[in-house]
Design goal:
alpha+beta, Jelly Rolls, Aspartate Aminotransferase, domain 2, 3 domains, 28 strands, 32% helix, globular
Length: 513
């Protein structure tokens, strides 16, 4: 398992592969699995004089991996005024240091032997040897724009790991199902705290197949929030059931739990709470309602990978949970992908058969199924990314805390609310812009080269595809207000603190005018 530090999502401690034997210890640092870059050069430091301080420079782009093979050393690094001190004293743990950091190596023990793996051959032009020059270079390299999301950053940071994962699938010759899918299903179910995971083609089909596995269809009703992505309702419609909407909470945008019971009828078969923007819905009272009325409780966890409700992860809170691994999600594939997670072995078995043409045995089709299977290439990539998910979510939480501190006190801007029992993962950071100023703020951010998004501009009941349902404007007023007020600010694990600060500055400038 790889972990990042609190300060930067790229600077990280990595665990090397250590293989003990009866007469030796073998340590392995693979470029694709541990180091994360192709190794072009290796050098080492030893016989270091007492009190020596080495390093004392920065690299603009060079990536390095520090491994203390013997003894110990302190590696002190700085970026944007933040200093971190890391003591390397075990050869099983290394530091992966990207470009852009000032480094200072000191407090060597007498027997220290430090090996350094580098991504490029020696290039004097990449060095910054004077500290004042480094600070000037940092000031000049401050971001001038902030994308809402740039998926190329993940590809650039993880190319070697992706290549290795995809190569392993190509070598296996298993292009439908196979070990890569089984591995990810096992890892993800364990991560969620559930017994079973079934890889599905996408998040929408995970919802659909979960409903079909319960024989929910024509004549049935399913309760869900009006304030959600339309896919939640489309899943209900696809199985032939009727979506029954409940308005949102004013401050969180989550389903109003106290309205759910009133929405039930004799035809109700299921409730689908949505963990919107990565914040869990209030599941205990919803579970109580579901149990009291014998209803299927299906989590729409498509935005909540790793989120916790009262210390339990989303995905383990209902009878089943649907996840999407669309490329913009916290845990994202390189295309469409999804999963159904459950503790119910029967549900998992039926969903697996439904997703595979209704079959467990080739050419014997017990159910009217479909083709919606997780691709092994996507599964392999997801297994790689799952190792980073907790650290990426921590990074998002740090950005959210930065926004909340930096944007508090603005009269016409309402910040997201977090319930005391929730540990959200901030798939989005939606602020409410009052007095019809959203368009103007979004335009001001765009002029400053800052991306933003709207989640979601049209609530479910006003979507053209549901015009025949008889819903009308004003029926779900909180969802409608949020649709015209919400603006999502950039909040990705690959954003830097400086990018978040630039967004804060521009938003404050807008309201200070």
């Amino acid at each position: 398992m790889k972990s990042t530090t609190e300060q930067d999502s790229q600077l990280r401690l990595i665990k090397l592969q250590i293989i003990p034997g009866p007469d030796r210890v073998l340590g392995v640092a693979e470029a694709s699995k541990q180091v994360g870059f192709q190794i072009r050069r290796m050098y080492f430091l030893t016989d270091i004089g007492k009190g020596a301080r080495l390093g004392r420079h920065a690299h603009r782009t060079l990536q390095e991996c520090f491994i203390c093979l013997r003894g110990s050393v302190t590696v002190e690094v700085e970026k944007h005024g933040r200093r971190q001190s890391i003591r390397l004293s075990e050869y099983s743990t290394a530091i992966m240091l990207p470009g852009g950091y000032w480094r200072d190596l000191h407090s060597f023990t007498d027997d220290a032997l430090l090996a350094v793996l580098a991504s490029e051959e020696y290039d004097e032009g990449d060095y910054i040897r004077d500290y004042d020059d480094f600070r000037k270079w940092e000031a000049q390299s401050k971001p001038q724009s902030v994308p809402y999301l740039d998926l190329r950053r993940y590809s650039a940071a993880m190319t070697n790991e992706f290549d290795a994962a995809i190569s392993s699938v190509l070598k296996s010759g298993k292009f439908i199902g196979g070990p890569a899918v089984a591995q990810f299903e096992s890892e993800f179910s364990a991560y969620c705290g559930s017994s079973h995971a079934v890889g599905i083609g996408n998040g929408l089909q995970a919802l659909v197949l979960a409903l079909k596995a319960q024989a929910i269809g024509a004549g049935d009703e399913v309760v869900l929030p009006a304030n959600t992505f339309v896919g939640t309702a489309l899943a209900v419609s696809e199985v032939g059931a009727r979506p029954v909407l409940v308005d949102a909470e004013e401050d969180t945008g989550l389903i109003q739990v106290d309205q759910v019971a009133a929405a039930l009828t004799p035809r109700t078969r299921a409730i689908i709470p949505v963990h919107l923007y990565g914040h869990p819905a209030d599941m205990e009272p919803l579970r109580a309602i579901a149990q009291r009325h014998g209803l299927f409780l299906l989590e729409d966890a498509c935005q909540a990978h790793g989120a916790r409700y009262k210390q339990r992860r989303c995905g383990s809170l209902g009878d089943a949970a649907a996840f999407s691994f669309y490329p913009t999600k916290n845990l994202a594939a390189l295309g469409d992908a999804g999963a159904l997670v459950t503790d119910d072995v029967g549900c998992a078995d039926v969903v697996r058969r439904l997703a595979n043409y209704g079959s467990n045995v080739r050419y014997s089709h017990e159910l009217l199924g479909t083709n919606s299977r997780l691709d092994p290439l996507q599964a392999a990539v997801l297994s790689v990314k799952l190792q980073y998910l907790d650290a990426w979510n921590e990074r998002r939480r740090a950005h959210a805390a930065r926004y909340i501190e930096g944007l508090s006190g603005l009269d016409d801007l309402a910040l997201p609310t977090v319930r005391p029992w929730a540990e959200p993962v901030w798939h989005a950071f939606p602020v409410r812009v009052r007095r019809n100023q959203r368009v103007a703020l979004q335009e001001a951010l765009a002029k400053a080269n800052i991306g933003s998004n709207i989640h979601y501009p049209i609530p479910v009941h006003l979507q053209p595809c549901y015009a025949a349902m008889g819903w009308c404007a004003g029926q779900f007023p909180i969802s409608e207000r949020r649709a015209v007020e919400l603006l999502s600010l950039p909040i990705d694990a690959m954003h830097s603190e400086q990018e978040i600060d630039l967004v804060i500055d521009e938003v404050r400038k807008f309201f200070d005018r």
